[in-house]
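Dear Dr. H.,

I hope your travels went smoothly. While you were away I took the liberty of generating a structure for the chain from your last submission, since the lab meeting agenda had it listed for discussion. I wanted you to have the full record in hand beforehand rather than looking at slides cold. The sequence, exactly as received, is reproduced here:
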Amino acid sequence: MASIRVKDWTKEKLRKIRDAESHSSYDSVIKTILKDRKIAKYADEDSNTAIGESAQSQDADIDKAFDDLTVLAELTGSHDDVLFLWCPNCGNELVHLTAERPLGLSVFEMECQRCLTHLDSQAIVAIELQYPIEQKMIEGQLGADLKSCVMDYWDRTLKTATTETVETEPSAARLVWQFDQYHKQFDWDCPTAVPTVSFVPGVTYRNTVTDERIEAVEAVTENRNAMDSYKIRRYTADGGVISDQLDSSTLVDWIVNRELVVTDKSIETTELTT
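The corresponding predicted structure, in token form, is as follows:
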């Protein structure tokens, strides 16, 4: 009988499914997966086609970085009804699931078993079958793609929040705090190409509206569910340095309005003014 060679990563995923669902063999696992895909594709074909076209239309309206990587919070459906949920912090697969159309996940939270980070739909990445996971893992590109997907989503979400005219849940301030917490937990570098989603001590930012340089020094409050206020240094045009405090409400406004960018320019200073 002919055999099929599979990579160790694939075999390990099949083994987990076999044990979890009490299959007698790998052959049984594969047959069940193929059967589920066939049922998902052809059952109620007319109805699913209409729903699928609607989902694809919604996806087409979203100008996101990847076609087959989507942060769970903005996912409306799946092309193949199969999703793999991944942790963007450590690049670990959290779970795979069969998705219904339209997809409804109002609340979804789980802890990554590898890095122990508590994640919700604002930071979990859904990968569809078309995305070449194994190839990306071999190339060492998967982690970078997961990060880019999440950072792109956070940036677009905050841009949308600036134009909201009605009260939304979660609020813009809540989103800023949440994205700031995730960014610091993941220990990601602050990008210079897009406005920041976080305020990190030791990093110097430029306000694109005032062209002022501001260095974050340290938090002066310890808020549990909101952004902190910070001790900062303001760099003046003539090279002076002014020690000041930035209140949390102003900081939230700057981040929501996409005014702060990380500066990669060195700053020549004279003396500190208090």
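Two observations you may find useful: The radius of gyration is 23 Å. The longest strand covers residues 92-98.

With kind regards,
E. W.
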